[in-house]
Specification:
The protein is of the alpha/beta class and 259 residues long. The protein has two domains: 33-113 and 221-255, Periplasmic binding protein-like II (D-Maltodextrin-Binding Protein, domain 2, 3-Layer(aba) Sandwich), CATH 3.40.190.10; 116-217, Periplasmic binding protein-like II (D-Maltodextrin-Binding Protein, domain 2). It has nine helices and ten strands. Strands 2-1-3-10-4 form a five-stranded mixed beta sheet. A five-stranded mixed beta sheet has the order 7-6-8-5-9.
Amino acid sequence: MKKNVLLFCLFFVLLLSFGCSDGGKVKEDEEQVELLVSAAASLTDVLTELKEEYEKDHKNTSITFNFGSSGKLAAQIEQGAPADLFLSASAKDMDNMNDKGLIDEPSRIDFTQNSLVLISNKDSTIDLNSFEKIDSAKIDHLAIGEPESVPVGRYTKEVFEHLGLWEPLQSKLVMGSDVRQVLTHVEMGNADLGIVYASDALISDKVKVLAKADTEWHEPIVYPGAIVDSSRHKEEAQEFLDYLMSADGKLQLEKFGFK
């Protein structure tokens, strides 16, 4: 009897060990996914910080970002560049992607907003507190995003056209390939003034905000996100998009100056 009990116990231990070992093997064999995210340059800092926390909670997902102007990112995806998720600083660029069948339309969602501000170098003596008071005769260079491909440039052009300043300022404009290049021009003193998002001004200790644009002067600055239709990792892309909309994601976005 005692012998049977010992044999049973030994069998049970072996069975348990086998089960644990098999479970570990299944976990190790789970697919490691590299999620490719094409994101607006203005999202650089907040997404870089979010990445660390997200990957801690999603062990089998690593995120690789491709930052740039939304227009150029959209063009890259259209030309076949790999991407699982597109995070744009412009509804227009996302609309164009949708019209061409390049995004999974049901996944599209506006996940944050931003505002437009006028900045100068922190050591500048320019005395200005309004967009309306910009005088082309009193400045040498004003940095803005390229309106054709950079959303912040498009919003800036709308503001200047509304205020009747677009034509008078033409000879003063320095075009940036994305909002971060605009910020850099002002930081380095290559431009007297610049127009960037509030979130970009917040992360720099080399510039100061002189004025904020009235939201009625330009189209709403919304950030839509959507899964790229050709993605092979749509489930993981949706999970990251959901994370941006979660309480934690919104908290981080607000911390970096987004609405």
